[in-house]
Amino acid sequence: MIDRAKLARQYSAEQQHFLDTHPRSRDLYQRAHGSLFEGVPMHWMKKWAGGFPVFVESAQGAHLTDVDGLQYLDLCLGDTGAMTGHAPPDTLEAINRQAARGITTMLPTEDSLWVAEELGRRFGLPHWQFALTATDANRFAIRLARMITGRPKILVFNWCYHGTVDETLVILQDGIPRMRPGNIGPAVDPVETTRVIEFNDLAALEEALSHRDVACVLAEPVMTNIGIIQPDPGFHEALSALAARTGTLVIIDETHTMCAGPGGCTATMNLQPDFVTVGKAIGAGVPGAAYGFSAKVAKALESRIPVSDCDTGGIGGTLAGNSLSLAAMRATLEKVLTRESYQRTIPLADRFRAGVESVIAEHELPWIVKQLGCRAEYWFRPEPPRNGGEAAAAVDVELDRYMHLAALNRGILLTPFHNMALIAPSVTRQDIDRHTTVFQESVEALG
Ligand SMILES: Cc1ncc(COP(=O)(O)O)c(C=O)c1O
Questions:
Q1: How far apart are CA 227 and CA 371, in angstroms?
Q2: pLDDT tens digits, one per residue of 103-114
Q3: Long-range Cβ contacts of 25-34 (<8 Å, 24+ apart)
Q4: CA–centroid distance, residue 23 to ligand 1 (Å)
Q5: Is this structure's pTM higher than 0.70?
Q6: Whose CA is nearest to atom 3 of ligand 1?
Q7: Is the alpha carbon torsion for 40, 42, 380, 196 positive or negative?
Q8: Residue 278 phi, psi (nearest 5)
Q9: pLDDT beyond 90 at 359
Q10: Protein residue with least CA distance to atom 4, ligand 1
């Protein structure tokens, strides 16, 4: 049981320490209110614990230095965008080389073929297109699915996150679909565009698809954005069979689950979706994303996108597929996010999990650690949740913020939106053990 009064006192003490030790970040944050809305370049940066975000001086590998000269072990890694580690030398070299040869031309480079061929090898789909963000990759895949099937709706799982895609910002409240709180200015209430059910609920899936108005199911193969939630054995096979029976397409979003291996969970779980979408880390943080699709989808699209109108179809972006993104993706896939890299980072994530589990056991806390490849996180409930609703019910905002700030004050960055750690290739065993010590100290301060 957490003593809430003590938690509040400890949080205040951590906040005071944060204020005292980050004068330059605080000054910049105050100055930023003169030009940046609410003092941050993106409004979600307000979400960092401590009252204001640290301003970055530089980031290299798994380490980051802020403008106050403080150094951090970065286990947030830009919420996956920098899963490769910051500025990996091979990608950096390709970026420099390509930037000097032209960043964007509206014409293909040979790198685009190399990247598409490599993504095909990794994810088993033959046809690829590019976007600048995973959000766009998802939006474009959804549009294609609606065009092919002629159906209006999509289906997502409760508490999923697939970027700022209108149709996905919907949750279940007491079993009833509702627009997700905080959704800004939707064109239509996503309850009208979307069927939302719990992950791992095959009966609900069967019912939802039986209406035959769902163009596609958009899913992470393992949920990651409300904590890691594994599919039940046989779940994906059943989903795939139900989708085939009802003429529904399946989009698997591998943007985060590429932490499981070079071909994400599509490869590790032997999935055969109609589309795969992926973004964030594939260019080591240089904006770039991709969506791949099957030969069947390609056939269905044939001659449906006339040349006369293909630049105004709601799919595209002037900078999508630009030479710089593709050079960064090629170098990252060829030399950074390699099988060898996962062979290094996954055992380190095992060590992270074992370390945190040992502290949890020692203090008899009703918490668990979950892991997917080089991603691991702790969650404040005793059993793994089976779906988003169960996971969301265990979110403890006060405890989250305290744990994040305590870690930050001791030189460790965790993802601000959940207690998630990603392991970059340059992380060492000592770094992992340092996190275990910090976790232990943070827990003991509440005892
Ligand atoms: C699974 C998943 N898909 C897509 C996105 C959207 O990525 P981006 O914000 O880079 O467009 C996210 C973002 O967190 C994500 O977690």
A1: 10
A2: 999 999 999 999
A3: 25/52, 25/53, 25/54, 25/55, 25/66, 25/67, 25/68, 26/52, 28/55, 28/67, 29/53, 29/55
A4: 32
A5: yes
A6: 162
A7: positive
A8: -155, 145
A9: yes
A10: 162
